[in-house]
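2024-03-11 09:14:02 DEBUG pipeline.ingest accepted 1 chain
2024-03-11 09:14:02 DEBUG pipeline.ingest length=306
2024-03-11 09:14:03 DEBUG pipeline.predict start
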Amino acid sequence: MAQAVTPFPVAAQLKPPEQAIWKRAMFSLIRAKWPLLALGILGVVVVMALFAQQIVPRDPNRQVLVERLLEPFHRDENGTMQYLLGTDGLGRDLWSRIIYGAQISLAVGLMAVAVGGLMGTTLGIIAGYRGGWVDDTIMRIADIQLAFPFILLAIMVLVVLGPGVWNLVPVLGIGQWVTYARIARGQTISQREKEYVEAARSMGAGDWRIMLRAILPNVIAPLIVIASFNVASAILAEASLSFLGLGVPPTVPTWGGILNESRDQILAGKWWPAFFPGLAIMLTVLSLNILGDWLRDFLDPRLRGR
């Protein structure tokens, strides 16, 4: 008599693939080197944003006019370090302002991507799955939005609504949804007639269940890659709008706002009030783009051997 085969526990079946994915990701990061450095830079920026109150040596809005435009690494008469990155035109500590600025820049970038990604992915999957007039309507709305330059559209909306984080996030999110919608639609069209979708439909699954449980997991990888790039785009857009005075109120430190306030100092030959926030923006955006490139290669099976 043949012996019954004892099935493996579910946890034992699932654990090895999960471990293999994490090991492959770590090996890929270490081998690529640059994405690992980018991840380290982003980790530092995230820690700065999360623990800003514990890190900053001074109130970022505290003005000391007698100490305005002090150079970086300024020391007092006793040789004690006072200002690591110097002060701005109002005597405020640049190091403290840049750390607090990381909070707003990252928060705006992540929330804008969440709004745009959720909106665009939902509409894109609906358009690709339904087809017909639903697809035509959603795509024509996307075409109309693409006909307007985003920065001009954002300026018009923020002039009406006024500056502020909660006005800025929806504007940036709505400006990004078209990219997600087009990619999600194309991926859904290629997936909707496959066997697993037909099997789910024949078992009585509804349209929403098929879209959420069957199609979405198979189209999410390219959307994650796009999201990593769009965080960088949102940070740059926030900096640009804050530079124009339309981002957040001047009392809230942001990297773009600090750049805006340093225009007069640049003309006077004082380079540090503009250099350090610009450097923070450049390193953060560059790290996000490098990590996005790695994520694209890691998630695309055709590029894994490169």
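2024-03-11 09:14:41 DEBUG pipeline.report Confidence is low (pLDDT under 50) at residues 1-16.
2024-03-11 09:14:41 DEBUG pipeline.predict end
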